[in-house]
Write a structure and sequence with these properties.
The structure holds two protein chains of two kinds.
Chain A lengths: L1 E3 L5 E3 L2 H4 L6 H5 L22 H4 L3 E5 L7 E7 L2 E7 L3 E6 L10 E9 L3 E2 L3 H8 L11 E15 L4 E13 L2 E14 L3 H4 L7 E11 L19 E11 L13 H16 L3 H13 L6 H13 L8 H14 L5 H13 L3 H18 L4 H13 L7
Antiparallel strand pairs in A: 1-2, 3-6, 3-13, 4-5, 4-13, 5-8, 6-7, 7-9, 9-10, 10-11, 11-12, 12-13
Chain B lengths: L5 H13 L6 E2 L10 E2 L15 E7 L8 E3 L2 E8 L2 E8 L5 E8 L19 E3 L2 E5 L4 E6 L5 E6 H5 L13 E3 L2 E5 L7 E5 L5 E4 L11 E5 L2 E8 L2 E5 L6 E6 L12 E3 L3 E6 L4 E10 L2 E10 L4 E9 L2 E6 L6 E6 L5 E5 L5 E6 L2 E6 L3 E8 L2 E9 L10 E3 L2 E5 L3 E6 L6
Classes of the chains: A alpha+beta, B mainly beta.
Chain lengths: ~400, ~425
């Protein structure tokens, strides 16, 4: 079902997005302005649900958020250079299984870009960007991109299996859909032990492209005519996406069930990607009391996310302590990662004496059970010890 | 007319009483030929009720990856009890315990146990004995009828065997009166021990430790023990441990966990995950010995720790390690992928009655008919829980399967469904 706004943009109703997500994330995203024909996020929020028709086209490579400057918007004005980066783009590319010989290796693709995750390095500028006068993150929390075609593919380059091609797609931002056509490089890097195991275990594909957009195309306006010296009329957009055949939601800890893993990703998506901290902490509290109540590894994982995950504007350290303590109790103080997480929480709460005590317990246990982990634990212990105030004689 | 004398019948009668018919036996990892195929099975149903095929019985069991042996009316498998391994003999018609033998098998401090302490290897039954191997390479020979321990060997202490990080998973290979195992130490690749006493008979040249179980192949009228460890694919004389041939592959193919497939008269199929890909090797007599040459290699099929099965000129396997698994058909002649099917998680396969029996790690059991251009799924039902990594066992139409908590028997036959 589609509708037209007064401004003439075309968009689907929110229900088609909300249906595929679960409580919390879905409830919030269902209030957001919808996007044109871009598949919804997975229940955990860190991937997109690839439609069956696209699954049949080839191998799915999931965009890997977190490590890269995936999108960079550069405004080069006479008196100011502003670079806004997003590291939390989620999405996928579908590549032909026989990409080496396919006429067009790139068969499908879609992206979702959380507007609250755009960062300039200046908190006041970030707030301005999110404001109703600019990108209006409250009403339009996501921008989307839908690949409509990839043409003129030809082999290029030496690293991996590289193709230069022309990308065509639709970028929807603040309710407006723009056609995009840009040259791009697609590089496929099959897994090798040496170079890749530290990043992700599947095959990689990277996509690079650059193009320019007018300020107005991006839904941005200069606050006054004099701002021309600080905000360029045209913004360069650089795209670098790393994708992998393994989903970013994949959990490698066999102790954590898929439902618990989904809860963890829902929390980080809400808190980190969309800045919805109240909703995120409410979700974590509810989960800790209900479906994760007896799940020590998942409670420990949530505690760590609260204290250590990048990009959380506010950290509920009381909740983190509750979760970490519960994990230690459930594991009868016999699990090194749970003790380590509790020590970290104590340290972040500026309770170094408690941090040292618990970390020493973790070190002693690791010496018996997991000697390979001892060195790292001792390094953290040294950090906690250094944080203790000197005792007066 | 010649009269049939009782004396002539006597050996036949003894034979009938003393051993189960060959069709009712699955005495080692992978079945009679270690190829996960049951060529004599017929009459599998083409469909089941939504709840699954007829369940004969279900019993609780504890964590282990060992698959299930069948010897007449007795099943053998392994489980874990605290710090001990337990070998189990169960009645095949009820799952009730005939005997259980436990022995201490404490883990080593340098083991990565996130997938549990096992046992991972499947026992082997030969003659009157059952041979079990723990994740710390404790080898035991037990009396099949009583479970009494006849002899045991600590192969880590005695031969420097490796637990390979996550625990030894190589299923022992019985050969005549020997038992052959991967040792994976600096001095010893394979070792053969006498089945009756455990005495060491031979040690081969060094090989890296690994998780793939060896197979036997008859090439050029000689038996070869086929192994894949690290970057080596090799054939050994099973009576002496002498290397018959060796083929080196690149490091990318080193993480091979699947069991090789032998395609008579002289080809071997290997598949590895983590980017390793799939290879067909041809072994030929050369200069008084043997040589091996790669016929083809493809990166398109990469099977992790499940098995592969062959039907005619096609091999079927569940390709994929941490990402989604794709059930694939690959042509033996040239390595071309004939089709890929989504819809199942990483899966173990059996081949029987012209059909694939699929058990994926999410516990979904399915029956499917492969076709030249795809897979026709005839029936499926979720019967076990994640992670159902143990390869099931098929005898006639009876399927035995397990996960970390449950062991069950099903009847897949037409009459029962």
């Amino acid at each position: 079902m589609t509708s037209r706004s007064a401004a003439g943009s075309t968009h689907r109703t929110a229900g088609s997005i909300g249906r595929a997500c679960s409580v919390g994330l879905a409830a919030w995203l269902s209030l957001a302005a919808p996007a044109v024909d871009v598949p919804p996020r997975s229940p955990g929020g860190q991937a997109l649900v690839v439609p069956p028709a696209e699954l049949a086209l080839g191998e799915v490579y999931h965009v890997q958020p977190g490590e890269d400057a995936q999108l960079t918007f550069t405004s080069d004005a006479p008196l100011q250079r502003t670079i806004v980066t997003c590291r939390r783009v989620v999405g996928y590319l579908v590549l032909d299984y026989e990409y080496e010989s396919a006429e067009s290796p790139l068969r499908a693709g879609a992206l979702r870009i959380p507007i609250p995750a755009l960062r300039s390095g200046s908190e006041s500028l970030d707030e301005t960007l999110r404001s109703p006068a600019q990108l209006d993150a409250a009403q339009f929390p996501e921008a989307t991109f839908r690949l409509t075609a990839a043409r003129h593919a030809r082999r290029a380059g030496d690293a991996g299996i590289a193709f230069s091609l022309t990308l065509l797609g639709e970028l929807t931002l603040k309710g407006t859909t723009l056609p995009i056509e840009a040259p791009a490089t697609l590089t496929i890097l099959p897994f090798t032990w040496r170079s890749m195991m530290g990043r992700a275990p599947g095959d990689f594909a990277t996509l690079r492209t650059s193009f320019e957009l007018a300020l107005a195309d991006l839904g941005l306006t200069r606050p006054d005519p004099n701002a021309a010296v600080r905000m360029a009329e045209r913004i360069r957009v650089d795209v670098f996406l790393v994708s992998n055949t393994v989903s970013p939601e994949k959990c490698y800890d066999p102790r954590i069930a898929s439902a618990a893993n989904q809860t963890y990703h829902q929390f980080t998506t809400l808190a980190r990607d969309f800045g919805k901290l109240d909703e995120a902490y409410a979700l974590a509290r509810r989960a800790a009391e209900q479906e994760l109540a007896g799940d020590a590894p998942s409670l420990e994982r949530l505690a760590r996310a609260i204290v250590a995950e990048d990009g959380l504007a506010r950290r509920d350290l009381d909740l983190a302590l509750t979760l970490a303590q519960r994990a230690v109790e459930l594991s009868a103080r016999g699990d090194v990662p749970a003790l380590e997480a509790l020590a970290l929480v104590r340290y972040e709460r500026r309770e170094p004496d408690d941090a040292v005590r618990v970390q020493q317990e973790a070190v002693s246990l690791a010496e018996q059970r997991t000697p390979a982990a001892v060195e790292g634990l001792r390094q953290a212990l040294a950090r906690y010890q250094a944080a203790r105030l000197p005792r007066t004689p | 007319m010649m009269r049939f004398r009782f004396s002539q019948a006597w050996p036949l009668l003894l034979a009938a009483l003393g051993s189960a018919p060959a069709s009712a036996q699955w005495l080692q990892w992978g079945g009679p030929q270690r190829d996960f195929a049951t060529p004599n099975t017929t009459d599998l149903a083409d469909r089941w009720p939504d709840a699954g095929p007829k369940q004969l019985w279900k019993q609780p069991i504890e964590h282990a990856h060992s698959s299930i042996l069948v010897d007449g009316d007795v099943l053998y498998t392994m489980t874990r009890r605290g710090e001990q391994d337990a070998a189990l003999a169960l009645k095949s018609d009820s799952g009730r315990t005939v005997w259980e033998t436990r022995y201490d098998a404490p883990m080593k401090p340098d083991m990565a146990l996130e997938f549990g302490p096992g046992p991972h290897a499947t026992p082997a039954a030969a003659g009157d004995r059952l041979f079990t191997v723990s994740t710390t390479v404790l080898l035991h020979a037990l009396d099949k009828k009583t479970g009494k321990i006849l002899w045991s060997k600590d192969l880590m202490s005695e031969l420097g065997a490796s637990h390979a990080g996550r625990g030894y998973a190589v299923s022992p290979l019985p050969y005549q009166d020997l038992l052959i195992l991967n040792i994976g130490s600096a001095e010893t690749g394979l070792a053969a021990l006498r089945q009756d006493t455990g005495a060491l008979v031979w040690k081969s040249e060094s090989l890296r430790p690994g998780h793939s179980s060896p197979i036997l192949a008859r090439i050029n009228n000689e038996d070869h023990v086929i192994v894949a460890y690290g970057t080596v694919r090799a054939g050994f004389d099973p009576l002496t441990g002498k290397t018959r041939w060796k083929h080196e592959v690149d490091q990318q193919q080193a993480a091979l966990m699947t069991t090789p497939l032998f395609i008579a008269p002289d080809r071997l199929f290997f598949t590895a995950a983590y980017g390793g890909g799939t290879m067909l090797l041809k072994v030929s007599p050369q200069g008084g010995g043997y040589g091996a040459e790669q016929l083809w290699h493809t990166g398109k099929m990469r099977v992790h720790h499940a098995d592969v099965v062959r039907a005619g000129d096609v091999v079927y396997g569940s390709s994929g390690d941490f990402g989604p698994a794709l059930l694939m058909a690959i042509q033996l002649d040239d390595g071309k992928v004939l089709w890929r099917e989504r819809g199942f998680a990483k899966a173990n396969l059996l081949w029987a009655d012209g059909k694939l029996i699929i058990l994926d790690e999410d516990g979904v059991l399915a029956l499917a008919r492969p076709k030249p251009d795809g897979l026709e799924v005839l029936a499926q039902a979720k019967l076990l829980e994640n992670k159902a990594w143990t390869c099931p066992t098929l005898i006639g139409t009876k399927l035995y399967l397990r996960d970390y908590k449950t062991i069950m028997a099903l009847d897949l036959g037409k009459a029962a469904n």
